[in-house]
Amino acid sequence: LFEPNDIITEALIEEELRTVVENFEPRANILNIIVESEREGQGYRIKIIFSVKNEKGPVTFTTFLEATRGN
pTM (2 decimals)? Predict the structure, then answer.
């Protein structure tokens, strides 16, 4: 979270999230990951939309990543 606050960092966070979910939660089928910078560059709103194998309907998980260093 100490990288430049730009679209490249958003894409890197998305890629890392996708890799982690694919590696550690094989039941999840990722439909979309949305990473948006918020709070004047102080963090990122994360939304992961996925389906669970053998279950109906998508699931949406939303969280906020923020730097806590120095707080």
Answer: 0.83
Structure tokens at 63: 């969280």
Q: Are 13 and 65 in contact (CB under 8 A)?
A: yes
What amino acid occupies position 53?
K
Tell me how far apart the alpha carbons of residues 41 and 7 are, in angstroms, rounded to a whole number.
Answer: 12
How crowded is the C-beta side of 14, counted as CA atoms within 13 Å?
Answer: 16
3-state secondary structure of 40: coil
| Banded model confidence at residue 69, pLDDT cuts 50, 70, 90 | low
Cα–Cα dist 42/66, whole Å: 6
Q: What's the CA gap between 59 and 31, in Å, rounded?
A: 9
Length reported for the chain: 71
